[in-house]
Amino acid sequence: MRSPGIPDRLPLLQKARKKGIPIWSELELASRLICPRRLIAVTGTNGKTTTTTLVGKLFQAVDRSTQVAGNIGTPLSQIVRRVRKNSTLVLEVSSYQLENIERFHPTISVILNITPDHLEHHGTMRAYAAMKARIFENQTASETCVLNADDSRCRALARRCPGRVLFFSRRKKLKQGIYYKGRGTSGARGEGLVVIHWRNRHARFPLRWDLPGPHNVENALAAIGVAVAGGLSIPVIRSVLKRFQGVEHRLEVVRRLRGVRYINDSKATNVDSTRVALEAFQEPLVLIMGGRGKGAPYTGLRDLVKRHVRRLLLVGEDAGRIQKDLGHAVPSKRVGTLQRAVAQAAREAVPGDVVLLSPACASFDQYSNYEERGRHFKRLVLKLR
What pTM did the predictor assign? Predict the structure, then answer.
């Protein structure tokens, strides 16, 4: 059983494979020990945890036995004794976990998006996308895969999906699927409608949604798609959406101090996640970036940084590379640690600014995980006078 992140080229694994010894992920083993009524699996480069959490809330509203686990923090193997035959199980699933499955079989699968990430592990975008596609490879024709119609790689995967495809879109009208209709794409409260046309379900309702950014509209649409495929009623869906407040470390408002908002987006462990965060704000940003890079260039953020960021503060191993890629776009400074970054940001921010921790990097150079990094950021911010 291979831990996520252990490279496939490890000699021990190559030898085992040659001898015909099965190599499984923890996900594969644990899924063989359960038989729930409904298994929902969510993957994608960004938005997995928010979407998985929201899907869990939707099904918990009608079924208290619903369990949420996987890459979200609680391994499936830890809760196998709590999964009953009438349970709904909602899993966040990573490409690393999918790499070593054989019979893993969700009733409803979700691929939110596929953008560059984990290339130091998978090598190429083609290989990375192929790992994501494994989420639906064992589904039957009567089961459902929810896919992002606005993502070209997701659209391409639809042709390979053995089950029914339910598309969602934030940008365009769909004859079959779920889409967002409004004056803009930000998802501000009362701004747009959710429109559903899928099989025998037809409905429309206002999106009552407080989470910032267009990416969170996409997360909501994906979760609604799962709920529709799972047979939940529109009143239940609307009620849960209205109450949902998001999850820790994902554009989490930590504090407002002297007219400045401090936002914890420590979960932004890749370049595309930081892109999504930058697009969520209209206010000038004091941006804290850095950590252990994943091999992707930061140059793709240059235009957004130039447009939204007033000051760039850099920490961790990849600070030099980020400064090389983005330093000409905005005034930047390498400060080394998060403690120095927060202190510097507090000195420089003015009323109306947002201080945003959105690292675009993993945390392992200075922290055990992104949660530890995010909580340290919050403690530092809450100590500011």
Answer: 0.78
4: pLDDT confidence band, cut at 50, 70 and 90?
confident
Read off the CATH number of the domain in which 209 is found: 3.40.1190.10
User: In the annotation, is 376 catalytic?
Assistant: no
- Respond yes or no: is residue 48 known to be catalytic: yes
Catalytic residue chosen out of the listed positions 46, 48, 105, 132: 48
User: pLDDT tens digits, residue range 116-131?
Assistant: 656 566 568 888 899 9
User: What DSSP character marks residue 300?
Assistant: G
**Interatomic CA distance for residues 322 and 315, integer angstroms:** 10
Same domain? For 280 and 236 the reply is no
Q: Which long-range contacts (CB under 8 A, 24 or more apart) does 263-266 make?
A: 263/354, 263/355, 263/356, 263/357, 263/358, 264/357, 264/374, 264/377, 264/378, 264/381, 265/356, 265/357, 265/358, 266/357, 266/359, 266/363, 266/370, 266/371, 266/373, 266/374, 266/377
Q: Are 317 and 324 in contact (CB under 8 A)?
A: no
Identify whether residues 64 and 136 lie together within a single domain. yes
Q: What distance in Å separates the CA atoms of residue 215 and residue 229, rounded to the nearest whole number?
A: 21
Q: Are residues 341 and 205 in the same domain?
A: no
How sure is the predictor about 188, in pLDDT bands with cuts at 50, 70 and 90? very low
User: How many whole angstroms separate alpha carbon 270 and alpha carbon 61?
Assistant: 33
Q: What number of residues does the chain have?
A: 385
Helices 271-279 and 214-229 sit at what angle, rounded to 10 degrees?
100
Residue 118 known to be catalytic:
yes
Domain count for the chain: 2
Residue among 46, 100, 118, 215 flagged as catalytic: 118
Task: Indicate the DSSP class of residue 2.
Answer: P
Copy the structure tokens of residue 49: 């945890």
Same domain, 217 and 287: no
Residue type, 7: P
Pairing of strands 67-70, 144-148: unpaired
